[in-house]
Every structure is written in C-alpha cells, then in structure tokens.
Hints:
Layout: H1 3-68, H2 74-84, E1 90-94, E2 100-102, H3 128-138, H4 151-161, H5 166-176, H6 182-191, H7 197-207, H8 213-221, E3 227-231, E4 234-238, E5 242-247, E6 253-258, H9 260-264, E7 273-277, E8 285-287, E9 293-298, H10 301-374, H11 382-410, E10 419-422, H12 423-437, E11 443-446, E12 452-455, H13 457-474, E13 481-488, E14 491-498, H14 520-524, H15 532-542, E15 546-552, E16 556-564
Parallel strand pairs: 11-13
Antiparallel strand pairs: 1-2, 1-6, 3-4, 4-5, 5-6, 7-9, 8-9, 10-12, 13-14, 14-16, 15-16
Helix pairs in contact: 1-10, 3-4, 4-5, 5-7, 10-11, 11-15, 12-13, 13-15
Amino acid sequence: MRAPLAWLLFALGAAIPSVAVLVVALRAASTESARAREEQLAERVATAQAIQRDVDAALARAKEALRRLEPAAVSRLEPRLMAEKPDFADVVVMGAEGQLLVPKPMSDEPPSPPGCLTDRAELLKGDRIAARDRIVGGCPHLKSEQGRYLWPLLALERVAEGSTPAEAIASWIDEHATRLAPAERSVLRARVTPLPEEVRGAILRALARPLALPRTLAALLTEPRGSDSVEAGLRIHRGRYLALVRPMPEGLEAGFVVHEASMIGAPGVPAHLVLAPGARRDATDVALTPELVVHVEPKDGAALDAQARRSGHRILAVGVAGLLTAVALAAVLFARARKAQRLAELRTDFVAAVSHELRTPLASVRMLSELLEAGDLPNDERPEVERTLAGEARRLSATVERMLRFGALARGRLSVQKSRMRAACILEDARDRFHKAHPDKEIIVDAPKSLEMDVDPALVGLALDNLLSNAAKYAAEGHPYRIEARRDGHHALLSVSDSGPGIAACAQRRIFSPFERADDRLSRATEGTGVGLSLVRGVARAHGGDAFVKSTVGVGSTFVVRVPMEGS
C-alpha cells in the first residue's frame, strides 16, 4: 500500500474516535460549567436561607425586647433600643403626631441672606426673570410650598442661557444630595441631560447617594401602602418597610424599622456576595414582607461566570490535550509500523537483488567453466570465453566486496586505512575500472595534479565505483559523466555528475538511507541492491566527512563526497 493512501486511511480511522472524544470533552466541559454555576447558586441559596433564619430569629428577639421595654423619656429610650435592635434595623421614636424624634430630624437650612425671596408666590409677581435671578444669586435654600428646592431648577434655566456655569449646579447638588427627596432627584436626573458629560456624570453620582437616614425614615413612615396589625401589644406594619413599634405613654411610639437600605447593609454576608434590592422570587430571596425583599447575588457576577467558564475550559483543555497526545502517539506508532513494514519490504527486495546480482555472474561462471571443462570450445573462441569468465569473476567479487563493506558499515566496524594519495590517481583508477565494465560510456576526469588527500584509496574508490555505477543505471543517456576533485577550504570534494533525469527534492535526503531509492518505478527497471549510496555516505563519514547530492529534475545530478584535508 502506498504511503499517502496508508496515511489517508490512518487519518480517517483516527478521525472517528477523535470526533467522539471531542464531543465527549465538549459535553464534559459544558457539564462542568453547569456544575460550577449550580454550586454557585447552591451557595447563594444556602446563604439566603441562613440569613432568613438569622433575620427571623433576630426579629423574634426584637419583639420580645420591645414587650419588656419600660416607658421612659426619649433620651433614655434611645440607648435602650440601640442595645436591643437587630443589626439590620434602625431605631425609631415617634411623637404623638407621628413626627420623627429618633433619629433626630436634620437640622433646618441656614437662614436665607437678607433680601432673599421667602415665598415662591413672589415669582408670579412682577418680573419673573428678575425674581429668578435674585433666587439663584442669593437664595440657595429656598423651597416651594411643597417643600422642594427651587434653586437647582432655576439655575438650570440660567445655565441654558449661559448665565450660570454648569459646575455651580454640580457643586450645589453635591452639597444638598442627601437632603433631596426622591421626586426631586428624578426631576433633576431628567433636567441635567444637556449638561457637559463630565459635569453630568458628577451630578448623577451625587444623586445616587442614599438619602440621609432621618429623611429616609421620615419618607418611609409616611408611606400609605402596606398593612397594620397588632400582635401582643405591638403595632406591626408590613409594606415597603417592616415596623415593630410599641405604644408608649403620652402618644409616643418606640421600636424598630427594617427597610431596604438597612437590609442591604446587614452583616453576615460572605465577602464575595451582596444583598441586592428587588425580588426575584426564587430561593435566593430574603423576604420580610411581600414588598420588602432582597436577594443574594454575586458581588462580581461576571467574574463568577468567567470562573464557571474556566472550569469548563479546563476540562475541555485536558480532553483536547489527551486527544492530541493520543493521536500523536498513534501517529508515531503508525509511522514506526509503516517504517518497519517498509524496511521489511526493502530488506526483502535487497535479498532478492543480492541474490539476482550473485546468481547472474555465478550462472555465467558456471556455464563458461563447464564449457572449458568439456573442452568443446574452438581455439579461436577460447580467449573470449576466458575474458568473459574473468569479468564475471570480478563482477562477483565486487558484489561480494560491496556486501561485506556494507555489513561492516551497518555494524559500525568499517575500518579506514589512510595513506597519502593524489586525487587525480584515485579518479583515474575509478575511470579505468568503469571503462572495463562500460566501454561505451564516456567519462571526463577533472582533478588538479597537486591535490593530495589522506584517505583510504580502496574505500574512496569503492564509493566512486558505486556513484559511477548508479550513473550508468539511472542516467544511461546522461553521459559523458564527469568526475571531479577540488579543494574547498579544509575539505576535498570528490564529485560524480551526469545529465540524466535528475532526482526530486523530496527524495534527495532519503536516498542515502539503506535500501531507499529515488524513484521506485525506475528502480524496479534496473538492477541493484539499494545500498550503494548508503555505502558512499558511510565511506565519507568514516573519513570524518559526509556525502550529499545536488540535483535538478530534467537537468541532472551531482553526487559529492566531502572528506577533510590533512591537518583540518
């Protein structure tokens, strides 16, 4: 089976289990990501349930503490309530008319400067623009009849006209943000849209601050929504807030209020989780009333999602790495098996080739010897038979010598007996030996007479014989062949060139391996054992050099033996 087809079949065979493993890895990664998210959700649910239990227990203790509370003056009630309040609740004491006594209401605004307008109604009298300018110029704390600040809205009109810098609006809102009611904040958020982006951002950040606690509680306690009930002497309000209050003498009420802001700041929440407003109606909710619900969520949800994805990615990476390792290992084993199979085939071909090369001269020797033994040859034919017999004997000897040298090379026992030789002599001897076997082939020898080398002449001659023999086999019409010797720095280069069909680049490396050939189809049409070039490289390396080829398809090839010069 040809190598490309074998590798194609291997790829197809490996693709099926690989796809199956990849699908399993993807599903495992998805399952791992889902498992990580489920673990995160389970942690949030467990946290919510623990907080709910703690809240319920704390509220039960708070109710019991209120029932035990003895009537006293406001100044004495506050510290007692502070000692008993739950961590997530605020203390309140209200007067007979429902006014907030604890926490103390915010101090009144500083008095307006002399000459400041004191009533919005004055804006409707006379020149409104003049009144607006007076308010913006010197009445920053003036409020409407509904208790809303006038200054920021009027100042925004002047900003639009270019009379007041936008930064002045930002400075005023930064100073008064905690005093602004929710309705005022909503109006200002809508009105500051045309302002420069930097100023608008500063204003929006200021408006995002929580209301001051007295204002927050005052706004909540006037909230009409919700329901009131009486339980064991306590008035309990359930709505947007939860109030536990106990009536006291002189119309006072004292107790605790739990609202969204106080719940969000409750302790006992792990550092990576937070309590967030707004009900989701799931297992992560902590509910005190149907309208007062907070839920447990990650402080950094994106980071937890990324962590869950990373868990899946790790599983996928391990699966893919295992798959690639398995495929790579299978490819290596398959390549080794193919190489072993190829080597077995080449060795079989080698044995067949050696047998053929030995059988042909042996058959000739036997036939000619029998003719001589029988004495049936005419005298005029006897010299020709003797020459043929000697030639076949030399051919047989050369084949046996080549096999012995290859065996020594394969065992690492190729010995080198160096002597000082002129390169020209070695090349001329190789030419003469080649001419005896191929008298019809022309060879050109090019070697300086002065070039001398320390080499084993027998081994170098054997290498040149193999190169010339290959030229005669594979480039039969590519003569005249050229054998050349020249010096290249500290090395001598011996080369054999032809103008034959050339060798493809992909085959130029492997042809120096035992039993390998450049073109299987061409090689099958020629005799040979496939060890000639391997022996050439072995001879070169035994001398401390190397062998290589330069070839262009359709132009020809040059095989080079490079050996070190003396003292290099």
